[in-house]
Amino acid sequence: MKVLTGILVLVSIVLASGDDVLQKVEEKYEEIETMSMDFTQEITYASMDEKSVFNGHVLLAKPGRMRMSVFEPDTQLLVSSGGSLWIYIQGTKQALYYDLTEESYPQVSTLIFNMSKEFESTLRGKTQERLIVKLLPRQESKYYDSLYARISRRSYIVSGLSVFDRQSNVIDYTFTSIRANVKIADSLFRFNPPPGTEVIKRH
User: Fold this and answer.
1) What CATH homologous superfamily does 16-202 map to?
2) Per-10-residue mean pLDDT for the chain, 203 residues long?
3) What's the whole-model pTM score?
4) Strands, E, within 46-115: which ranges?
């Protein structure tokens, strides 16, 4: 069973600096404390001719909190309080625990809310509906090389993210039904493994 990992190949014609775009994105997200949205995640594996597609719903809250419920193809739950990440796989009754105090695989909440702080940017494309920005980490990451963000030209909300990791895999998110500043209980960002769950600690 494949485990959802938490984050596009696009035409790379340099049009302009992405600094202005990220500045507007940052101004938008300064007004936002929480987000609720549906997602589709597609993972393209470089080592094999295969793709995995996941569908679900994600809740985000500052600072760095996330609750991601995966409904298809199987039931999984990802919960992050900012300092840790739990991945619960209902079918196998296993819970993976990650300590996030050191660098970890990029989480959606961190990527969206800290975009201008964490990345240098270049505008790589635009349509009437959206802007496409290439993001390079300001500090070298052992997990990923670059990211692409798809940003609404009307709202400057991030509608999609793609991560190109060190193994040349591509993890693509598309976000829909996006709502900002919704009420979310703090308890949803805490996870207690159900009785009988095998807990596996990862680093």
Assistant:
1) Lipoprotein localisation LolA/LolB/LppX (2.50.20.10)
2) 45 54 91 96 88 94 92 89 89 90 69 85 90 90 88 94 91 96 96 94 79
3) 0.83
4) 50-61, 65-72, 76-80, 84-89, 94-99
